[in-house]
Design goal:
Oligomer: single chain
Strand content: 15-25%
Keywords: Signal
Strand order of the largest sheet: 1-2
Biased composition (Basic and acidic residues): 99-109
Radius of gyration: 35 Å
Structural class: alpha+beta
Protein name: Ankyrin 1
Signal peptide: 1-22
Shape: elongated
Region (Disordered): 82-109
Distance between the termini: 107 Å
């Protein structure tokens, strides 16, 4: 009976050492994989010319303007060109009503 309990405890200790070793190996593999992927990414950026003027630790940030707000004073409104929109409706061969819009800018006076 004591022999069985002793063997069971030794087996549990060895199993725990094995699990810890597996975790360490997975950590090393994950770190190596991250390093290789980062290196490949940097090399691709160099080939594509996307990292010019940036150090390895900097990231490229790009923005896009979605809306613009313009504040006008006094007679500045007269100097802005206008826009004329014409709309034409017709029926196509299948009987659908089609609306055609045409935007044209008007010259400054």
């Amino acid at each position: 009976m004591w022999t069985f309990v002793t063997q069971l405890l030794v087996t549990l200790v060895l199993l725990s050492f094995f699990l810890v070793s597996c975790q360490n190996v997975m950590h090393i593999v994950r770190g190596s994989l991250c390093f290789v992927l980062k290196h490949i990414h940097q090399e691709l950026d160099k080939e594509l010319g996307e990292s010019e003027g940036l150090s390895d630790d900097e990231e490229t940030i790009s923005t896009r303007v979605v809306r613009r707000r313009v504040v006008l004073k006094g007679n500045e409104l007269q100097n802005i060109p206008g826009e004329q929109v014409t709309e034409e409706q017709f029926t196509d061969e299948q009987g659908n009503i089609v609306t055609k819009k045409d935007h044209t800018s008007t010259p400054n006076p």
